[in-house]
Specification:
The chain is α/β, with parallel strands linked by helices and 294 residues long. It is 29% helix and 11% strand. It folds into two domains: 10-215, Lysozyme-like; 220-294, no CATH class. It is built from seven helices and nine strands. Mean pLDDT is 82; it is low at 216-229 and 281-294.
Length: 294
């Protein structure tokens, strides 16, 4: 079973949990929009601690599952994944906006248009560093929320709502897409971070890959496919690089041996090859050929 509480997030658990109604798994994207700013009159970002205290206290009636700071990657969680949260209006009768899914994970991103952080002004959420998005997305995906926007990925503050789509299609929804609501946020949202390999993974496998990425502090993930990055490509690239470097070192050793009389080149090459083999870290991974069969 996936984690009820997002790994790495601080926890400020609210006591009034309640079950969802079942159905297609969903996530709802919000921005906190704490201040009204503009290009000509930007405003400083509200401190994360202020919003954390608000949702954990006087604002608990509108608390989401997740409060996320895209500038630092800090995350606080208020409800477990399987509980409803309360960041959208749920009118009497009609669809159950906070509950219409096996999960309905709501994320409030600490942001408003033209917020100012460290002297720089950010017109859109996607202009921020979006730190922590990969881990947050992986956790939401582990709960079966597909990487689709049934009403379209938000690119502005235009509302698009359809109750039938909401009730029957899983995936990501902007607050501007949720029935019975009139908000128009978030205006933009970061791209999904999954790969074609992950599309074929179970939620547990996707979670394991996310954990590998969090543990391996390697900044240059190998490129593979249409704008995607994955661990398979990284391991294969490193393997190919190690083979090429070993071959180059062997060739250099042979050339150096040939330059000096009285040097047993074969013995020297064998010694270097043994040293390379002894230096290789034994990783318990099987790398398969991904070439499709016919």
């Amino acid at each position: 079973m996936p984690d009820l509480w997002m790994p790495g997030a601080s926890r400020l658990a609210l006591p009034d949990t309640a079950p969802t109604d079942g159905g297609p798994a969903k996530a709802i994207a919000h921005i906190t929009w704490d201040r009204n700013a503009s290009a000509s009159a930007p405003a400083d970002l509200v401190p994360f601690s202020s919003l954390r205290s608000y949702f954990g206290g006087s604002g608990s009636s509108a608390a989401p599952h997740i409060l996320w700071n895209p500038f630092t990657g800090e995350v606080t969680q208020f409800y477990p994944a399987t509980s409803r949260s309360k960041s959208v209006v749920d009118s009497a009768g009609g669809t159950r906006t906070n509950r219409a899914g096996s999960v309905v994970i709501q994320i409030e991103c600490l942001f408003f248009p033209y917020c100012r952080v460290d002297g720089r002004v950010y017109p859109r959420l996607v202009d921020t560093p979006c730190k922590g998005w990969e881990q947050l997305h992986a956790w939401v995906r582990s709960w079966g929320v597909p990487d689709v926007w049934p009403m379209g990925r938000p690119v502005d503050f235009t509302s698009h709502r359809d109750e039938a789509t909401w009730e029957t299609h899983g995936g990501w929804y902007a607050h501007a897409h949720v029935p019975e609501n009139d908000h128009q946020d978030p205006g933009s949202w970061p791209q999904f971070t999954t790969t074609s390999e992950e599309d074929d993974m179970t939620p547990d496998q996707a979670k394991q890959l996310a954990e590998i990425r969090s543990l391996v502090q390697f900044g240059t993930w190998a490129y593979k496919g249409d704008g995607t990055f994955d661990a398979w490509a990284l391991l294969n690239a490193l393997y190919r690089q190690s083979l090429a470097q070993g071959a180059a070192l062997t060739a250099l050793t042979r050339a150096v041996g040939d330059l000096h009389s009285g040097v047993d080149t074969a013995t020297l090459v064998a010694a270097v090859q043994k040293a390379i083999a002894d230096a290789v870290v034994d990783v318990d991974v099987t790398v398969h050929d991904a070439t499709p069969t016919t």
